[in-house]
Amino acid sequence: MGSNSTNTMICKVWGVGMFSIVALTTSNILLTLRLMHGRDDGFLGGGGGCGGSIPDTAPHSWTAALSSTNHSEYLTFLKAAAINTGAQAPPENEVVLNDDKGLPDSSETPLAGFSGPSLLLGTGFRVDESTGRWDVRRRYKIHDHVFTGPQYPRLTRESPVCLATQTSVDRLFWLTQVARYWTSPMSVAVFTPDVEYAIARAYLTYLVTCFPFLGEKVTFHFTYPRDHLPRDIPLVIDHLEGKCDQPLAVLKELLKQRNSKMLMWRERMPYPQNVVRNVARKNCGTEWVFLADVDIVPIPGLSDGLATFLATKPATQCKKCAFVVPTYEVDERSPLPYNRSSLLRLAEQGRARPFHQKVFVHNQHATNFSRWEAREHDFPGEVAVSISHPVTNFEFFYEPFYVARDDVPPHDERFLGYGFTRNTQVYEMFVSGYSFHVLSPIFTLHWGMQVKRSRPAWREKQNNANRRLFEGFKREVFARYGKDPLNMMATKKPRKS
Description:
The protein is an alpha/beta fold.
């Protein structure tokens, strides 16, 4: 009897042990698969600034699009643009791009004869510290329009909408995707402290040379902190012709100019998201502005569709309307979804989902993606852009990417780094009487399915500092408009963003 009980006990222990081993092994396999297939290519919480990792490789759809760029045709375009604008050669220490087909070799006198982009740029991408303007607290120096593409003035006159975005230097590679199908003007503010100024000059010269769909319609602005003024060093990109489809590799090479000593303070420096957002937005010359982060990619036809919609009565007759463009994150191995039908097919396969759905659902939840997706049967084929539905469940942490007139409240520049940056501006819009309306069938996308990751201590410190600043901000908003629709005055500490 005792022997049987002992055997039974041993069997039970063995069974429990084997079950634990199997469960642990299965859990490890699932975790590994999740990490492999759920990479987050950007920082959590939006913003477009430093702090996110640079992917090792670019999405397949990205590289396929970039390889179609005809660089030799663009050199012809540059020559014509230089002749038409009468651009002058820049100083001798201007960045030199080497190319076997038309650009001078680095051993030659800089810019002797035709120098491709340099004739177009003139003294572009160069700032004089004695000029520029300060932000309202004199913490950051701003230089507007350090470069303006040859088509930007015409597009600004003819288009009702401009795309405004901002970025740190380490995320500039996204601009090749943002500009690929956007046909209206673009205003881009770049944060350029210390040696990142030199990196920005070299890399942006490379971008506008190799990617005409960006260079011809964009205007760039530089912003840097007064404690880390721009430092210029000569940088050369060799053999440009062979690197025009390698924006990621070129940027990584240039970023090696940042030494370990610099990176120690650079990583923890609060990125002034709201300062550069205001710079990008206010430098758009159009009536309407589409404000988005640098890693938010427009689909083909989006700018044309918006232009047509903004001439209709729902847009022209509403003085305080913001029009939300839904954003989805897409598996980076998937083909580019050109329309809503292809996007929804990816969603059914688990290869696309609403932006931030798994990271922080409140970020986009009020858009009501289920309602947007359910309207598919109302729009057979390709149709004009229209309002799908109004936002009826606005919440404090809502951060839509929207199109609005350029008289919306500015982003409060007290908020630096992470937390309470975009949502506070959208919150003030809501309190001041703006209504939000979701557009269909257009959308934007973010390459990569985002997953939660542990946050570094410096980021949480920034978030806590901004949370404390919000206590004063909400009182000012209440005093300014005399409204408290979300009952924020009774709330001491909103949830973490």
